Amino acid sequence: METLLSVRNLRVNFRLDKETMFEAVKAISFDIPKNATVALVGESGSGKSVTSLSILGLLPKENSHVLEGSEIVYDGHNLVGLDQSDLRKLRGAIRCRCYSSRTTSRWWARSRTTSW
Description:
By secondary structure, this protein is of the alpha+beta class. The protein has helices at 48-56, 84-91, 102-114, and strands at residues 3-15, 21-33, 64-66, 71-74, 77-78. Strands 1, 2, 3, 4 and 5 form a five-stranded antiparallel β-sheet that branches. A hairpin with a 2-residue loop joins strand 4 (71-74) and strand 5 (77-78). The longest helix has 13 residues, at 102-114. The model is unreliable at 106-116 (pLDDT under 50).
């Protein structure tokens, strides 16, 4: 199966104060095949939203850092380090939804499956 998105060794830190960093995502890797629907599932605080925001390039620049060696490859381009104008062009092609509550995620899934 052909790969749409490949995430390799993704590591994300947040600066808590002048001297303290928090490692929010610790070297995860996965592939998303083309024409597939996938879900990123995990416990609260496991890094699902940070991973999704990293893919879209929407982490706050003031206190977050995608560490060197991380790769997010979409359509042959490593998204890590792209400038904001290039990321904006790609965001229209990447679809991502992050829901924190079971009620909201169930509603969204149900509304999409019954309306098609």
